[in-house]
Amino acid sequence: MDNAIKFRPSGSRLSSAERYAPPAIFFHWAIALLVVIAYAAVIAKGYLPKGSAPRALSMTIHEWAGVAVLVLAVPRLLWRMIKGAPALLPGQGRLVRASSAAVHLLLYLFLFAQPVLGYLTLNAGGHVLTLPGLDVALPQFIGKDAEVGRSIKDIHETIGSAFYWVIGLHALAALWHHYFRRDDTLRRML
Ligand code: HEM
Ligand code: HEM
Fold first, then answer.
1. Residue range 119-169, pLDDT digits in tens
2. N or C: more exposed end of the chain, with fewer CB within 10 A?
3. Mind telling me which residue stretches traverse the membrane in this protein (predicted)?
């Protein structure tokens, strides 16, 4: 069967033209981990008592994980634009091609928009991010404004809630390719 031919038993190697290059794989998984940390920290914050040190620490972890996402997203996008991605595996129908392209585009937008909105939420709230251990404050891009801050925070939270689903769909699609379609889509990102 067509699909069975494309699934290779473990131990066989994909050619370098068929798989993502090592830097792309590093960016993918490092950023995925940081996004998970940002989500986990802000969820944990919700369970911790108001005004407590662990709650403040959760928020600091959230903010720095989010800033790190943005910092890595820049070289990641540059790499992607310059080097491109491996051609899609043969046998992917039009629906799979269109939906994966749309979801990947949304994920790239998210990696830039979400940290920027989070950062601006802080700025508008009059809070400054300071490099740990060094008394160096990151720049403020907008001034303190409670109303603007509330609006940006609402957008940041709405996008945050929506992307549980987008990221979940993306991860499920990868598992679907691997376990049900039995093709090499997941293996080329490993
Ligand atoms: C990929 C990166 C990020 C993700 C996935 C993310 C996700 C979220 C989510 C889901 C919430 C809502 C939590 C809730 O409903 O209680 C939230 C809140 C928030 N985030 Fe982010 N965020 C990211 C980056 C950032 C960055 C870079 C900053 C600031 C430097 C930031 C600052 C905030 C702030 C101030 C809140 C409001 C917390 C509160 O007062 O309840 N976020 N974020
Ligand atoms: C926060 C989490 C994640 C984000 C932001 C993310 C983002 C992305 C993006 C933007 C791409 C497109 C890469 C490109 O062509 O330049 C991609 C590809 C991919 N991702 Fe993720 N990803 C995440 C988590 C995951 C997880 C958990 C899995 C597996 C279970 C996964 C599996 C894959 C695979 C297999 C590809 C390659 C798809 C293909 O060959 O067409 N990702 N991811």
1. 999 999 999 998 877 889 999 999 999 999 999 999 999 999 999 999 999
2. N
3. 20-41, 61-79, 100-122, 162-180
